[in-house]
Amino acid sequence: MKTSKNILTALLLTGSAAIPALSQTVTTKPRIQANAPRSIVIAETEAPPVIRTGLLQSTLILLPAEEKVATVFGGDTSSWVFDGGHVASRFISIKPKVANSTTDVHIVSDHGNEYTLQLREVSADADPHYDSKVFISPGDQAGKEKLVTLPVFVPAAELDKAKREAAEAEAKEATERKQAEAKAESYRSQYPGQLHFDYAWDRKKADGLGLQEVWRDDKFTYLRGKFQETPVLYELKDGKGSLINWSYNDGLYTVDKTMLQGYLTIGKQRVDFKRQGVN
């Protein structure tokens, strides 16, 4: 019995002595960390630069301030997320969904510059740092010159916006046109009832001058005739003729008011007219 106790005590001491040794061999995997912003110059004659990315972490790619993203082509769109936003800008967000994956991305700017980057997910690397923000710029002279010229491409987001605005404007115009047509049709259908032929004049004198008809609606007074020469139209107030504004086109006088009485005259000829029921 005493021997069994000694053996148990020895086992416990051995186990407790092993615990510190075990704890010393266990290492904690470093968490992935973001690098400081990085600037990259891209030349067509050189290999695409490698961008370090972190699993489920967003890496922001920024084009030069003069440019916007026209389109983005990703090599592996199932393991990676490429987001240029819904509004045309210089920003592209890249996020890997699968550890240790690699792909490339091709960016075309609205100025016609093309940028190719090699992407690599680095969460399993000994170095836990990934690129959180990367500024890219053209290294070739031709690319630099494009930055100061007018854009040659319309970014897809701007094109979609322009199409949407054009469709909305067309729909609005169609609605307004239908409303105007309906209003005009309603006016035409009601207009005959708004015409009043309630003027009296000397028909014999009117035939000599060429006056055929006088009428009004709720806003205007009209005189129609066939005249050798265009008579002058006056409004009669307190027994005196008064000049008024009127327009004349192809035998039709239009006065922008309702006249109670007036007259047309040319030379010695004169035709008075008066609205019936007016003293």
Question: Can you describe what's shown?
Answer:
- By secondary structure, the chain is an alpha+beta fold.
- It has four helices and 20 strands.
- About 2% of the residues have low confidence.
- A hairpin with a 2-residue loop joins strand 19 and strand 20.
- The strands form five sheets. A five-stranded mixed β-sheet has the order 2-11-4-7-6. The chain has a five-stranded antiparallel β-sheet with strand order 12-20-19-15-16.
- Among the domains are: 115 residues, Sandwich (Immunoglobulin-like), CATH 2.60.40; 77 residues, Immunoglobulin-like, CATH 2.60.40.
- The relative contact order is 0.11.
- The radius of gyration is 45 Å and the shape is rod-shaped.
Name its key features.
279 residues, alpha+beta, Immunoglobulin-like, five-stranded mixed beta sheet, five-stranded antiparallel beta sheet, 4 helices, 20 strands, 26% helix, 36% strand, rod-shaped
The computed structural class is: alpha+beta
- SSE sequence, one letter per element: HEEEEEEEEEEEHHEHEEEEEEEE
CATH class of the domain at 33-147: Mainly Beta
Distance between the termini: 145 Å
Share of helical residues: 25-40%
Order of strands side by side in the largest beta sheet?
Answer: 2-11-4-7-6
Shape: rod-shaped
CATH topology term of the domain at 33-147? Immunoglobulin-like
Query: Count the strands?
Result: 20
Per CATH, which architecture of the domain at 33-147?
A: Sandwich
Mean pLDDT: 85
Largest sheet: 5 strands, mixed
- What is the helix tally? 4
Radius of gyration equals 45 Å
- Strand content bin: 35-45%
Low-pLDDT parts are 21-26
Protein name: Conjugal transfer protein TrbG/VirB9/CagX
Keywords: Plasmid, Signal
Organism: Granulicella tundricola (strain ATCC BAA-1859 / DSM 23138 / MP5ACTX9)
Signal peptide: 1-23
